[in-house]
Amino acid sequence: MAVRVAFNQVHADIEIREVRISPLGLAGTLRLPHGATALVVFAHGSGSSRLSPRNMMVAEVMNAKGIGTFLFDLLTVEEEDQRAKVFDIALLAERLIDVIHWIDRERELQSLALGLFGASTGAAAALVAAAKLGDRVHAVVSRGGRPDLAGAALEMVRAPTLLIVGGADYGVIELNEAALTRLKTSKTLVIVPGASHLFPEPGALEAVIEHATRWFLRYLGVGRGAAEVKE
């Protein structure tokens, strides 16, 4: 159950709803374009929140393509400083699953094709959630993620999965390559040349957004040309 805090019309084509997911009151921001048929839930990484400027930038581009987005806080304010909680993948995955269960109780959201976008440790949480939810999750994208932390769940993921990593993110590249071999579903690894972990380099985040959006357009069935989108 969620307590709705606000529901505002931003402009003619998109609505924003601020919610809190009980029982912990985790804050979330739902952005739903008019006529959306798909929704991407974001799972941020350690030290971040629903207000991550990088994830917000990704979400805005997806909204412009007709994809709904939901950014929420995986941890409470008190938990954010507890390193054990930040890297507790099982806990983060359960929080993400709770949000998806809330989505499935909302009449205007329950029929939407669902994608998960995870960053850093949030990517592992997204993969664990996808493994547990099976066919409810239609696509997963990891940005600078640690998919290796999903462990045995990797072999159980059925959703097509895209791993995006920076070409200068040494160590994390190898972890993504190892995770890719364990995935048994449709999968792709994209390495953005010269980019470091947070993709701050000119054009790097834009490349992430392009790859991620194309992946979701393809596998969430958004728009008439979605089936023609190729990686």
What are the main properties of this structure?
231 residues; Rossmann fold; 9-stranded mixed beta sheet; globular; disordered C terminus; alpha/beta; 27% strand
Structure characterization notes:
By secondary structure, this protein is of the alpha/beta class. The protein has one domain: Rossmann fold (3-Layer(aba) Sandwich). Helices cover 31% and strands 27% of the residues. The chain is built from 6 helices and 9 strands. Strands 1-2-3-5-4-6-7-8-9 form a 9-stranded mixed sheet, with helices on both faces. Helix 1 packs across helix 6 (204-219) and helix 3 crosses helix 4 (121-133). The protein is globular.
Q: How is this structure best summarized?
A:
This protein has 231 residues and is α/β, with parallel strands linked by helices. It contains 6 helices and 9 strands; from the N terminus they run ββββαβααβαββαβα.
Report the strand count: 9
Q: Strand portion, in percent?
A: 25-35%
**Overall form:** globular
Please state the second-level CATH architecture: 3-Layer(aba) Sandwich
Segments where pLDDT lies below 50 for 5+ residues?
1-11, 224-231
The chain-level structural class is alpha/beta
Cross-sheet strand order for the largest sheet: 1-2-3-5-4-6-7-8-9
Write the H/E string, N to C.
EEEEHEHHEHEEHEH
Q: What fold name stands as the CATH topology?
A: Rossmann fold
- Tell me roughly what share of residues is in helical segments: 25-40%
Question: What is the rounded distance between the termini?
Answer: 38 Å
Overall CATH class:
Alpha Beta
CATH superfamily: Alpha/Beta hydrolase fold, catalytic domain
Rg, Å, rounded:
16 Å
Integer average pLDDT: 88
Biggest sheet overview: 9 strands, mixed
> What is the number of helical segments per DSSP (H or I, 4+ residues)?
6
The count of domains is 1
